Amino acid sequence: MSCCLLEFCRVQDLKTVREFLFQNQKLEPPEDNTQTAENELSWDTSDWESAWDHPEEPKGDGNTVGEESVAQTAPWMQDCVVALSPCSDLLVVARDHRAVFLTAKWRSGDSGREEMTLAVSWSGTLSAEDGECVSSVICIPLASQKRSSTGRPDWTCVVVGFSSGYVRFYTEYGVLLLSQLLNEDPVLRLKCRTYEIPRHPGVTEQHEELSILYPAALVTIDGFSLYQSLRACRNQVARAAAAGSDSIQPPPLAYKKWGLQDMDTIVDHSSVGIMTLCVFDQMKNASTLGGFHATVKGSPPAMSQYITVGGGPYTGFYYAIEGSSQPLLSHVALAVASKLTSALFSAASGWLGWKNKSEEEPAQKQKPKVEPATPMAVRFGLPDSRRHGESICLSPCNTLAGVTDDFGRVTLLDVARGIAIRMWKGYRDAQLGWVQVSEGRGDRESSPSAPLPRRHAQFLVIYAPRRGILEVWGTQQGPRVGAFTVGKHCRLLYAGYRLMGVNSVTSQGWQLHTQQVCLLDPTSGALRTITVPFHLALSDKKSERAKDMHLLKRLTTILRSREVEPDILESEAKSVLLDIKHPAIKKQALESLLANKKAPVSCLTGVTRALHDSLREQDPEAVDEALLQLCSSQLKLLTLYTDLQQLHHPPSLSPHPQSDSAVGVEEELSRVDGALRRYAQLASRPSVSFAQDSPDAPLPARTFLSQLEGGEGGEVVVVRNGDEAWNRLGSFLFWGCLTGQSPIHRVCNKLELAGISPQQLLSLLLSVWLHREKEVITKPEDIILYHLSLLPVPPGAVEESWDSQSVSPWWQQVRSACVQSNSAGAALLAALVAHRAAKSSITRLSDSKIQADWEAVSLELEQWAVCVRQLEDVLALQTLLWLPSPLGPAGGAPAQCCAKSLHEGGRGGVADSVAKWVFRQNLAPERLKEILLLGGSLSELLVAVSQRFPDSLSPDLLLAHCCWEYVVQWNKDPETPGRFLSSLTGISSMMWSTFMVKRFSAAAYLMEKVGKAPKDRLCRRDVGMNDRAVTTFMGSSVQLLQILIEADSAVEEVAPPELCVEEVWCGAQGPASIAELALEQRGVHFPLVQHHYLLAALLHAAM
């Protein structure tokens, strides 16, 4: 096990975020700075240019949403302030005065698994003062106070610092909770510290705190007070919103304000927390600050430690007395340095106040009073006149800190001693983070004596954007344990805190779901987290785990090499797997070997059998059950794969006797032979495909193993990893049987003995049959159908306790697959074979239960009869829809249909499909009537479909749907007058109210305004079409209104038509058809229609 970079979330709508934050601005691509800066020094590249000690990186998803990757060349996110909640459920991206909040949402991915995404939940402007902009943001999740909580946050507060000095608190939906001006200088950095359970007795328990850094001041807010105030503000805002009021009374909030002295510039800080000096350190400080005559009394005081970085000195250490403890140098402070006394022994505290509603106006005109800061001098620092610090990142256990500077160095500080213990070079503009890993539950907890405490290891994560790499280093003097090649415009997001509002009581039994370090890639929107195993922190060369990791790396190197003999690969893999001691690493090595695409099957089988035999020879109590089960299942699958390969290439096949079902299938096939031939001519159109995607390509062993999993009871479960992989597995198992190249019964026996369920085998058989329709309908039917009819039906397909009203789930699965498939020809052939097999089995059962004078009537056979009739109808309809359009590709792609889609399309589904075909064929109404009544060269297929659907495709119903289709297409392109003229023969009232009245009103208002025929530019602007199209539209409107007048005068003389549907399609459920909607329309108002007719005639004449 080694370091890995795992994607756990993906940010959606990054293009929308960027466009909102950079409104009216054009992003320029980054310049290629070839000149070296003054402070930039060269670095040794032999380390990071060597081969990384990490596994293969997970490649990005190939079907990334286009909007997330288009035009992302410029490093736009480097100009933004980005903050991620420790729970990874809220991301804030801000720039200037705008901000976007993205919250977590779950959705089903392409593989069917639930995936977390971050989508925009709020975007807007945060600034309230003129000229201020966002300078720092953090997201603080607040713990729930409910007893049933398990560690998830109740809600998340967004704390925003501005260049005006204001600090404002928002909810995750952008609702302002409170705002306060703490200092008139810009806010440089916001940081938070939350409660952590002490790992050892005697360790000082740290309090929660929010720290706000200004150029010359530091404000700290107590976490408990902040937690209570934020909850109260949120409740009051909710009550005020419910009551329709904006007046709230927030509670007071305690804070301390320190004036940082003796540093030229400060850019970042870290609040280490409360520390207590030992007696020796107390005496040392007293002697240093008070001189020879200094005296020490009382217990050592508790102090809060703060570390700042910047310039003059490069790093500064500040200490502030906490609570009411005795001053450290109370007797000598006044005589030595009053300035130091006031800095060390005075506590500066204040109160955050809010204005009520009556004082709101004066507060806007005059800034609030800013309390002065209590001076605090630097205790000591790391002076370096030329070096300027840029950032500081404190470790989770508050013992180490990483500091970056403008020299391209990363310095590791010992916080307690105040010294630099390590330095890395060559990391300009680096971003830092920490990963803390706990030791696994192993020997230390299972010892017979008192269990030893679990050890913790810390790793420093360094992201070098200029080199585009992410490195993980062991501390304090540990080696680099991982490196990953990432983009050059990523952001390393490290919070350094968890949930606020947690204490030693409420955290009992909680599982805090937080991410320590996340890497955000703005190009793809991927959020990745770093996983580091604990054993990488062990420096013992004799460690068994370290030795096992070395063996695993050795195997990985062998598998990556291009030219390796199979015998050498097998021997090396056996040696490595047998030498590895830890079961988890041995399992990882075996899985990497089985997933290798170059390893032959014989090698995989030999290595797996050797490992399996080795585990069998060991003590059963010392063997890992999961590893043994994995070896057994993989060995079983490899044996099955080898046997199937041998069966698919037999020397010769003996002829099989013809079954009774095959004879019945030939009779049914002769009945539908003509329809199948016409369908095959249109279905076998030439297409482009790649050789590696061909279903006849050999199935690799690793693909076979990835789709089959062994269960505890010896059964084998087929995993569906997508339609393409499913069809390839089905072709590997059954295509040789269907084409007569493999012994059918021997293959089926092997699959049955392997423990694969008959339902999954049936699903694989139907999928390959329906997917490879072109080969099925173009090969000689007697061969394929003969072998399909020989495939055995497993016991239980028809229950022995059969009665005429029972339906077999086995045959229901076949029917469901056929009616849902768009391959009409292959589905009909499969249904014919299954119908004949079901009829044979039911007849045999009925002969033993029913007297000879009676004939068995079965619900199963009735459903098969309906299914076959429906598939024959779909075949005829699909054949018609596949006729090529005379317009070529401009006519659009042919529609696909299946029995299920026709059922879900309602009563007008068939007529709607034919209407779309009529539009693709560009048939005029007169030509359509001629085909339906008189016949013609194009009428053969259409008449055949009309005969199969006499009710659904009655002339009136078909013309109504064609009318509606033409007017829909005209509405998409109103400058094509032919489509509109073709639609004036049907349901005029619905057409007028849905598509025409808005354009007609716009044209009338336009002509009234200009007083004459409008020009082309005005017509395009107001009506949406050119002036010629408007003229044609007005003429067509006159004809439509004339039809409405004539129809209204004859509405009482003609009875409304009766809408019927064929008997086999009577179960169709879906939206109402156009004809049904037309019959529900109310009658028109004759004088109003006549008035519109005159208006349309005048407008047409004016145009």
Description:
- With 1103 residues, the chain is an alpha+beta fold.
- The protein has an eight-stranded mixed sheet, covered by helices on one side. Strands 10, 11, 12, 13, 17 and 18 form a six-stranded mixed sheet that branches. Strands 6-7-8-9 form a four-stranded antiparallel sheet, covered by helices on one side.
- Strand 21 and strand 22 (409-414) form a beta hairpin.
- The protein is flat and about 125 Å long.
- It starts with a strand and ends with a helix.
- Belongs to the Rab3-GAP regulatory subunit family.
Major beta sheet summary: 8 strands, mixed
Distance between the termini: 80 Å
Determine the mean pLDDT: 78
Percent helix: 25-40%
Strand content: 15-25%
Main β-sheet, spatial strand arrangement: 2-3-4-5-1-30-29-28
Separate helix tally: 33
**Unreliable stretches:** 29-73, 324-365, 445-450, 655-659, 979-986
Which class of secondary structure composition applies to the elements? alpha+beta
Question: Which term fits the overall shape?
Answer: flat
Query: What is the number of beta strands?
Result: 32
Question: What is the alpha-carbon Rg in Å?
Answer: 39 Å
Oligomer class: single chain
Topology readout:
Layout: E1 4-11, H1 14-21, E2 81-84, E3 90-95, E4 98-108, E5 114-125, E6 134-143, E7 153-162, E8 166-170, E9 176-181, E10 189-193, E11 209-213, E12 217-222, H2 223-243, E13 253-260, E14 265-276, H3 279-290, E15 302-311, E16 315-321, H4 333-336, H5 338-345, E17 350-352, H6 360-365, E18 374-376, E19 380-382, E20 389-394, E21 400-405, E22 409-414, E23 419-425, E24 431-438, E25 456-464, E26 469-474, E27 480-485, E28 491-494, E29 517-521, E30 526-531, H7 544-560, H8 566-579, H9 583-594, H10 601-617, H11 625-647, H12 660-671, H13 673-683, H14 701-706, E31 708-710, E32 716-718, H15 723-738, H16 744-754, H17 758-771, H18 773-778, H19 781-790, H20 809-820, H21 824-849, H22 859-881, H23 899-904, H24 909-921, H25 925-933, H26 939-948, H27 955-972, H28 977-981, H29 988-1010, H30 1016-1022, H31 1027-1049, H32 1074-1079, H33 1086-1102
Parallel strand pairs: 1-5, 13-18
Antiparallel strand pairs: 1-30, 2-3, 3-4, 4-5, 6-7, 7-8, 8-9, 10-11, 11-12, 12-13, 13-17, 14-15, 15-16, 16-19, 20-21, 21-22, 22-23, 24-25, 25-26, 26-27, 28-29, 29-30, 31-32
Helix pairs in contact: 7-8, 7-9, 8-10, 10-11, 11-16, 12-19, 12-21, 13-22, 15-17, 17-20, 20-21, 20-22, 21-22, 22-26, 24-27, 29-31, 31-33
